Amino acid sequence: MPRTTPGSGAILRPVFNSSYGVERIEVIAGGNDYTKADPPKIVIDGTQIPVVEGIFYPVITGVGTISEVVIFN
Fold first, then answer.
1. What does the chain look like in DSSP terms, one character per residue?
2. Which of 26, 39, 47, 56 could be cross-linked to 13 through a Cys-Cys bond (beta carbons 3.0 to 4.6 Å apart)?
3. Is the distance from CB of 11 to CB of 29 less than 8 angstroms?
4. 45 or 1: whose pLDDT is higher?
């Protein structure tokens, strides 16, 4: 059974560097009803299998929106 996390409506845009790595992820819309205790997994659709899988962490505000995305790898 797939994991269901709270929250919806966030729109994120990845920005790639010259070697096609993710340089940053811009938050276009923060969505609503996300929780810090159970953040959503961020997956970038439409890309090929990476050499190194990215690890992205959404920073969730006290009102349940995604304010930024931290790139760990």
1. -----S-EEEEEEEEE-TTS-EEEEEEEEEEE---TTSPPPP--TT-PPPSS---EEEEE-TTS-EEEEEE--
2. 26
3. yes
4. 45
Dist. CA 46–CA 66, nearest whole Å? 22
Q: Which two tokens stand for residue 58?
A: 């959404």
Residue 73 pLDDT = 78
- With 0-12 / 13-18 / 19 or more C-beta atoms within 10 angstroms meaning exposed / middle / buried, residue 36 is exposed
pTM for this prediction:
0.83
pLDDT single digits (tens) 22-66: 899 999 999 999 999 999 989 888 777 767 788 999 999 999 999
